[in-house]
Design goal:
The protein has about 425 residues and is an alpha/beta fold. The protein has 15 helices and 12 strands. Bound molecules: iron/sulfur cluster (SF4). The site of iron/sulfur cluster (SF4) has 11 residues, from loops.
């Protein structure tokens, strides 16, 4: 894996992931972090469903605590035993072997767990984050690093596949782990954030390669990193003259909307042009909390785009995808990508035929606003990058005309040669 074992900051003891080892850090940074950690949360939105869940399962907790993102991480569901208090596991076998396989860890924030409370195995949110025995079945063609990111890594925690942009894997920690994660080979291996020194070689590489103009800060989930440290990374990137834009890839606004505090947003807006790609899976994720989180980010002038993995039995039909894309626009998030699910080990129960994705795009294009139609892509196994897949709209040439087919299947001709 790319991640260093350096543990300068964070975590570790899984349940308390954001503790700093002060001796190894710049003391001003540590002081700023400690101060921010003790400040009360300014996130105050809690939907009736969240409050009901909180009262039932955390009766001693105040709404202020519930809305504190550190509390959410520290009280996450990380075992089947704890999770079985809130969702129905009757009829589910093989717990032991699923736990023993340790393919991906189990971690779900109390907030996100509230979206599937009392659910059975058909609940779409639950399917995305609760382990099942299906992930023990490994089929041909699956591998732990299908995008061959490790082969394109010139420095620890950095992937350089396209000439002008790099992927900066800032942490291996996520607030909630998706069962279909492309980076299952690296996330949560140490249950910690990487140390600041683990970023230095990657920063040095970016400084020395002037063709890089775009850095995507991802992981893991970079918004689980304490603000002080995230700001250190953003400042370091902004101080590199040839870096034009910074993008952050995250699922925090969806699984941990409480993370989008005024303080975080105020800090982020100092680093414009800054974009954010948010990982959404299903329309049930679009709650009042998520609306608040996205509004704060959008109000700070951060353009928001979505990334959604196409998942069998979760979002693989036109109706669900249309509802999600419409909901995203209401949340001021521009639908950006639908990804074909990557063939990681144990993913066959999530993967749909490619034709299904094309059908979904056909069901969106022309049937709804263009803004609601994302790109459908396969991230080519072996490191080929993102390849777009489109229904057949261009049918070829007929004399001087090109032949086109519209969303209703009707044919039209366009004079392609000016005589
Ligand atoms: S949030 Fe992203 S990096 Fe984290 S488990 Fe989900 S897909 Fe993987």
């Amino acid at each position: 894996m790319n991640g260093s074992k350096n543990q300068e900051f964070s975590s570790a003891e899984a349940e308390v992931p954001l503790v700093l080892a002060e001796s190894t850090l710049d003391s001003a940074l540590v002081k700023a972090y400690q101060k921010s950690k003790n400040q009360p949360s300014d996130f105050s939105v809690a939907s009736p469903a969240s409050v009901e869940f909180m009262c039932k399962n955390f009766p001693d907790v105040t709404i202020d605590k519930w809305n504190n993102w550190n509390w959410q991480i520290q009280n996450s569901y990380t075992t089947f035993k704890k999770l079985s208090q809130v969702i129905d596991f009757s009829g589910v076998k093989d717990f032991e072997s699923i736990v023993a396989a340790k393919r991906l860890p189990l971690r779900i924030t109390p907030y996100y767990a509230s979206l599937m409370a009392g659910s059975n195995q058909t609940n779409p949110i639950r399917k995305g984050v609760v382990p099942t025995a299906y992930e023990l079945i490994v089929t041909p063609g699956e591998c732990s690093d299908p995008l061959h990111e490790e082969n394109c890594s010139p420095a620890p925690n950095l992937v350089h596949r396209y000439p002008d942009r790099v992927l900066f894997l800032a942490t291996g920690f996520c607030a909630t782990y998706c069962r279909y994660c492309t980076r299952s080979h690296m996330v949560a291996k140490e249950k910690v954030h990487y140390g600041l020194s683990a970023w230095q070689q990657a920063l040095e590489y970016i400084r020395n390669n002037k063709q890089i103009r775009d850095v995507i800060v991802s992981g893991g989930d970079p918004l689980t990193i304490p603000e002080t440290h995230l700001e250190y990374l953003l400042t370091s990137l902004r101080n590199i003259p040839h870096i034009e834009i910074i993008r952050i890839g995250t699922k925090a606004p969806v699984v941990l909307p409480q993370r989008i505090t005024c303080g975080l947003v105020k800090m982020l807006k100092r680093y414009h042009p800054l974009y954010m790609s948010i990982h959404f899976m299903h329309p049930d994720e679009l709650t009042p909390e998520v609306y608040e989180a996205c509004s704060r980010l959008a109000d700070a002038g951060i353009p928001l785009g979505s990334q959604t993995v196409l998942l069998k039995g979760i979002n693989d039909n036109v109706r669900t995808m249309r509802q999600l894309m419409h909901g995203l626009l209401i949340n001021r998030v521009r639908p950006y990508y639908i990804y074909q699910c990557d063939p990681i080990p144990g993913s066959s129960h999530f993967r749909t035929p490619v034709q299904k994705g094309i059908e979904i795009i056909k069901g969106l294009r022309g049937h709804t606003s263009g803004y609601a139609v994302p790109h459908y892509v396969i991230d080519a196994p072996g490191g080929g990058g993102k390849i777009p897949l489109l229904p057949e709209y261009y049918l070829g040439k007929d004399g001087h005309n090109i032949v086109l087919q519209n969303y209703e299947g009707k044919r039209f001709y366009y004079p392609d040669e000016i005589g």
